[in-house]
Amino acid sequence: MAEKTAIVSPLPGIFYRRPSPDSPEFVQAGEAIKVGDVIGLIEVMKNYYEIKAEEDGVVDQFVVGDEELVDAGQELVTLTK
Amino acid sequence: MINVKKPGLQTTVQDRGRIGYYEIGMPPSGAMDKYAFTVANLLVGNDPNAAVLEITYLGPVLEFGKAMKISLTGGEIPPRINGQPVPMWTTLEVREGDQLSFDFVKGGARVYLAIEGGIAVPLIMGSRSTYTLIGIGGFEGRAVAEGDVIYTADMRKKEIPVGTRIDPDLIPAYSKTHEIRVVVGLCSYRLTEESKQTFLDTEWTVTPEANRTGYRHRGEKLHFVEREQPFGAGSNPSNVTDLGYPIGSIQVPDGVEPIVLLHDAVTGGGYATIATVISSDLDRMAQVKTNEKVRFVSVSLEEALEARRTVKQKLGVIAQFIEIGM
């Protein structure tokens, strides 16, 4: 069995999967990502904060959809290692 | 000196604020939670107006360039020194090379980091507070950034023993639902009777647009009494002839999403202000996060002043406790 981990949001705000409305999504389910890769943005207080992978892995699924509200500590993405 | 390894989301230098320029359109800025700010300075023996770092939602990583006393107060963003958890609301000592970092926010929204002597930045119009919207005060008029070096000032008045702690009963509790007290007015006469009640009955949700300028809330639509708009007022029913906005005043542009104006907000304009958050609860507003629930509770001016006295009394007790050393 592959080990599952999650990337959580350190902030409350709006989750975006794209760097801008016309751009493709940062990453897709099934894609391999590395430490430091941006997987999405959280908008709060008119700031956009980059959510980065803190470990290598493969994106299992997005728990939160594009432009959904999230709380601090909420899981955004699950990874398999 | 202190090296900024990571800045956090928005970490700014703040003191009591740039008081005395409101009438020319300059908001005071300053610490959003004055209670936590005041206690932070007390715990390191600083002048009450020494500048501190205000940390919002996501803590920075800071490295201390020399030994010094520090304190952390406010919301629960659990701090660590060299990876080891350390208590908040306590006089701490760091050594040269120590690193301060934070876990994810657990409760509240803002932490205050006071440093023995305060933070050395130039006084601008009598204050060291950062007003980021126009880029003045604090650290070069902006939030601190990676690679910045922060110097300490000479505003320590007393030596406070390491390990001095605040009575837990005097530490505010931060929940996810908030009752914020308001005095109804100045332009509440513009709301229909039904909408005045709706304003007080609604459980509002704080939107992502919630910062030092203001907090925007989502909930019900409010309606204004129909009238022919007077000279000088805009055409929207939520407009009035321009007036000065009290800090903490609540306006409802077009009847949707009430905004509580805070310490970096515009000082006047043409929206009807339907209520004002009482001064003691501005501190509590500062610890409300996006997505949390707020209910506005109407109180009288006398009750508001009583609440202000209570806060002053608590701070007096804390100051005395720290002074006598136990």
TrEMBL record, chain A:
Is Lipid biosynthesis a UniProt keyword of this protein?
A: yes
What pathway is it annotated to?
Lipid metabolism; fatty acid biosynthesis
Give all residue intervals belonging to the Lipoyl-binding domain: 7-79
- Domain of life, source organism: Bacteria
Q: Which Gene3D superfamilies match?
A: 2.40.50.100
Look up keyword Metal-binding and say if it applies: no
Which positions carry the signal peptide feature in this UniProt record? none
Q: Any one Gene Ontology biological process term? A: fatty acid biosynthetic process
Q: Which keywords, in A-to-Z order, does the entry hold?
A: Biotin, Fatty acid biosynthesis, Fatty acid metabolism, Lipid biosynthesis, Lipid metabolism
Gene Ontology molecular functions: acetyl-CoA carboxylase activity
Q: Name one GO cellular component term.
A: acetyl-CoA carboxylase complex
What job does the chain carry out? Answer: This protein is a component of the acetyl coenzyme A carboxylase complex; first, biotin carboxylase catalyzes the carboxylation of the carrier protein and then the transcarboxylase transfers the carboxyl group to form malonyl-CoA.
Q: Do you know which NCBIfam families this protein is assigned to?
A: PRK07051.1
The record ties this protein, via PANTHER family, to:
OXALOACETATE DECARBOXYLASE ALPHA CHAIN
Q: What is the protein name stated in its UniProt record?
A: Biotin carboxyl carrier protein of acetyl-CoA carboxylase
Species name for this entry? Brevibacillus invocatus
Q: What is the lineage of its organism?
A: Bacteria, Bacillati, Bacillota, Bacilli, Bacillales
UniProtKB/TrEMBL annotation, chain B:
Q: Per the database record, which ranges form the Carboxyltransferase domain?
A: 23-315
Question: SMART domains, from UniProt?
Answer: AHS2
Q: Which InterPro entries match?
A: CT_A_B (IPR003778), Cyclophilin-like_dom_sf (IPR029000), PxpC (IPR052708)
The cross-references to Gene3D superfamilies, in alphabetical order and at most eight, read: Cyclophilin-like
Leader sequence range is: none
An example Gene Ontology molecular-function term? hydrolase activity
Highest taxon in the source lineage: Bacteria
- Which key words tag this protein in UniProt? ATP-binding, Hydrolase, Nucleotide-binding, Transferase
Among NCBIfam families, the record links this protein to: urea_amlyse_rel (TIGR00724)
Q: Which PANTHER family match?
A: 5-OXOPROLINASE SUBUNIT C
What is the official name of this protein in its record?
Biotin-dependent carboxyltransferase
Q: Which organism is it from?
A: Brevibacillus invocatus
